What we know:
This protein has 361 residues and is α/β, with parallel strands linked by helices. The chain is 36% helix and 21% strand. It has two domains: 3-152, Rossmann fold, CATH 3.40.50.2300; 173-360, Rossmann fold. The strands form three sheets. The protein has a seven-stranded parallel sheet, with helices on both faces. Strands 1-3-2-4-5-6 form a six-stranded mixed sheet, sandwiched between helices.
Amino acid sequence: MNVMLKPAAPRPGAAPARVMICDDSVVARNAIANILQAHPDIEVVARASNGQAAVDTVKQINVDVVVLDIEMPVMDGLTALPLLLAQSPHLRIIMASSLTSHGAEIAFRALRMGASDTLAKPSSLSLAEQSFGPELVAKVLGLTRLARSDAAGAAAASPPLAHRPAGTKAPRLLAVGSSTGGPNALFALVQQIGPRFPLPIVLTQHMPASFTPILAQQLDRLGMPCTEARDGDRLVPGRMLLAPGDRHLLVRRGSAGMTAQLSNDPPENFCRPSVDPMLRSACEAADGRVIAVILTGMGQDGLAGSREVVQSGGSVIAQDEATSVVWGMPGAVARAGLAHAVLPLPKIGAKLSSMVAEHRA
Length: 361
């Protein structure tokens, strides 16, 4: 059977997220469905075995999020992607790709075509996968909120939060941390600041090692040079260095200025690379002259590092809840009172430029 539909079941309160799973493997479809249906706020309303079946399904029923496999018979995921979006403009699509470099290349191509997020799919989908299930659930819930907000024509207002004054030191370094929903947020931020941004930039995105080289290539295509960091790479204005998967990116200071150092130290906040060691080392190497940006992501990685940024005289900007897929990392920073500004993603670039220009003036 190509398509399995489930009628919507009314529930009290907010309606559950309505999800379709499109994968040619019945084992994968069932495993993903079991993960999602274990959450009370998610309902799997359809299962499809190929892209054509998925396109036909969204013509019949309302769906918030599609978990879309890439390689399928009849119609593959990349072919189905624009057709799905044409049928339902507010639909959010998560591309489930393999952990290979080839899978990463296709997943990032899908992001440029309009997919909302990617998910690295383990070779064996099971509840024993410690990271896959929670990340999948978080993305589905966050993207459903964004989809329904867009459909309603207005974003939900973020809660009022106390903002602290900006750091008084002229910044020498921009450090950005992100996780769930991060790739698209990074693309947007880099396009906002433009190729002539006058500070070196270091980036930590929670992502497998097979994906980070492709992410660096995608960022590089936006106009500002970007590479995966290597030991000894110099930090220079107008260039981005991205933490490689499974390595912490640290910043060191030497006679030639600031350089990158990669570390195999244990994971922090269950992550390697982790944002916190990047921020700690950046504060030391740049004498606290750091602007940190914490973008969408699960958990609270970046909270301890942001505290050190503030204590050493730097500034922190957090993405707001309304534009975050998951308001975990930026929310932790904002609720702790560490953020100089809590902003929608489209406004962060302009804020960074004005902060740098103010000190230069």
